[in-house]
Specification:
Blueprint (H helix, E strand, L loop, with lengths): L9 H30 L8 H10 L5 H22 L1 H15 L5 H21 L7 H13 L1 H10 L6 H30 L11
Helix pairs in contact: 6-8, 7-8
């Protein structure tokens, strides 16, 4: 996006980010609230809301609706994978461009993305209990989203000590670190509990 002093790119980008996260919140929040209101503690730990829907609504819901729900979940998973894997796709293309000294062609991009997708799928099937490591990995990565931006802002802007923004950023950063440590502790506990259930190539 072109940027200049008169028309900085951060203004439309900030508007786009706010609009995008508003749409995400508008889509996900009603689903989470409605799902918990409908099923509550009956939602299984593996499978989430989809498993609860199939377990409790299979008999009184048409096959068309059940198939449509499954189709929407597949579309959501495929779309999300493309977004979250984009940094890896860019890295693979960058490595190819640096080594071969030429741009990455479209068919090679397709091949790289397909092989990466198959590799991730293979790992998911080969190590089905890798989901229990998710809490630990999420706890390690959580400060990047919740804590580091606050501390970076404090380092760059250097607001007056004990001002409103200084207190807000310090508070949010510390809360983010506390949540991260709590999530890592929970992740270690889950790994320890599921240690004896680890089996290769036996997804549940």
């Amino acid at each position: 996006m072109p940027s200049s002093e008169k028309h900085p790119s951060r203004v439309p980008m900030w508007r786009g980010a706010k609009a995008a996260y508003t749409v995400i919140a508008a889509c996900i929040s009603p689903l989470a609230i409605g799902g918990f209101w409908a099923y509550g503690q009956r939602i299984p730990k593996n499978g989430g809301l989809q498993s609860a829907f199939y377990a409790y609504r299979r008999r009184d819901t048409s096959q068309f609706i059940m198939g449509l729900v499954s189709l929407l979940i597949i579309v959501n998973a495929l779309s999300s994978f493309q977004i979250y894997a984009m940094p890896m796709f860019d890295e693979l293309e960058s490595i190819f461009t640096k080594r071969m000294k030429r741009p990455c062609q479209w068919w090679l991009r397709v091949v790289l993305r397909a092989f990466f997708g198959y590799g991730v799928f293979f790992l998911a099937v080969a190590i089905p209990s890798i989901g229990s490591v998710g809490g630990l990995v999420g706890g390690i990565a959580l400060p990047v989203t919740l804590a580091y931006p606050c501390f970076m802002w404090l380092k760059m802007r250097r607001p007056r000590k004990y001002s409103r923004m200084w207190c807000l950023n310090w508070g949010l950063g510390i809360i983010g670190l506390i949540l991260s440590v709590s999530l890592m502790a929970a992740g270690v506990y889950v790994i320890k509990e599921n240690d004896n259930k680890f089996q290769w190539f036996k997804p549940k």
